[in-house]
From TrEMBL:
The gene is LOC111351109. It comes from Spodoptera litura. It holds the Pfam family tRNA-synt_2d. Gene3D superfamilies: Bira Bifunctional Protein, Domain 2 (3.30.930.10), Ferrodoxin-fold anticodon-binding domain (3.30.70.380). Is responsible for the charging of tRNA(Phe) with phenylalanine in mitochondrial translation. Residues 344-440 form the FDX-ACB domain. This is phenylalanine--tRNA ligase. Its EC number is 6.1.1.20. The lineage of its organism: Eukaryota, Metazoa, Ecdysozoa, Arthropoda, Hexapoda. PROSITE patterns: AA_TRNA_LIGASE_II, FDX_ACB.
Amino acid sequence: MTRILIKTNRIISAVLSKYKFSTAAKSVASVQIKGKEFVADDYTNVTPKIISYLDKNLHLQKNNPLSIVRQRIVNYFYSSFTHRGHPAFSVYDNLPPIVTTKQNFEDLLIPADHPSRAKSDCYYINRDTLLRAHMTAHQSELLRSGLDNFLMIGDVYRRDEIDSTHFPVFHQVDAVRSQRQEELFPDKPELQIFEPTFDKTNPHTNHINDPMKQSCHTLEATKLMETQLKTHLIGLTQALFGEDIKYRWVDAYFPFTHPSWELEIFYENDWMEVLGCGIVRNEILVNAGPSNTIAYAFGLGLERLAMALYKIPDIRLMWSTDSGFLTQFENVDLNASITYKPVSSYPQCTNDMSFWLPPTYTIDTFISNDFYDLVRDIGGDIIEQVKLKDKFVHPKSKKHSLCYSIVYRHLERTLTQTEVNQVHKEIEKAVVDAYGVVIR
Ligand code: PHE
């Protein structure tokens, strides 16, 4: 469970997987992505399959569990931090996933030989361009544009095996919160963010030898930021999982923060890492613009939270287009406790039913719920879902028509189309008898 975080212990996996992937990339002259052509080189290792995930934006699909968790996190930050009645955080959830190595690594002080840059771990388009490996890749550009408090939400790409908890594409929420002296220590002009000995004109003299803090920062500023950071993230965790959630902080290392921590929650009899965070390295802030602030940053993985919150047993389900999965998350109250109910692995079969209503009904007075019950009465357990697909009034005859989709699925075996058609016919007959409709 160490994968979501870009940190040093990835050395081991990078060394191990060096051989596994060294022959994987076929040589191509260029790569086409979203109508744009990129020159390929010896780093190119994106595959057409991976490129096909680029437009999916699961975190923005309203009936996807990732989107529900995203909205809950955004709401937490919106309601916890306001500035003159407006949310203090701005949210970026549509940043393009193709980034430069500068954005993904250099801007974040990730050294040239750092294992997280390995070809075996990232999807490179070429030597200079890759699919972002973390949302932190956008931190510097947003700071540079003048923002101080923001969330970056999107899909990230890391080469990995595929199993029930790993998938090469997943989603992160990353954040930065910065404060100036007067915000961090209101009415306490005697307290400072920076050590008096620190030469702000020469930010690269900052070092991280002391495990407690960066050499440029005062201990008071660091400690206060640490307390705020931890309080906010525990608040978020409790807002998601409830007050009783068991958690612990673990010291961590990231090239872009110091000090750094990880938060683990106790889930299904084990500790599960849910986020990484820390105090942003002052060099990053100075390179991007602000030289008078201190900031904290964190990054969390949406899949793990969604899987734990809704008891979703397999990460691949997030990509399901199966309505049996998606309807469980459709139009739900964001804070409702939802427990995912496994859907059958046998295929669905969808048949539509359209009919003209008799004059006693209009498209607005016909009660869909009555129809649903009738469908279930006849079809029984093989009815997975019934939904209104279309309402229609004929312009000339003024006759009213409705169309419903019925999704059939057996829990233990594959239904044949003939079998489904037969049940479908029986349902048609029953609606004709019950309501006097005319099947179209
Ligand atoms: N970018 C880190 C990761 O993906 C998470 C992180 C973000 C850690 C911000 C600290 C600060 O692993």
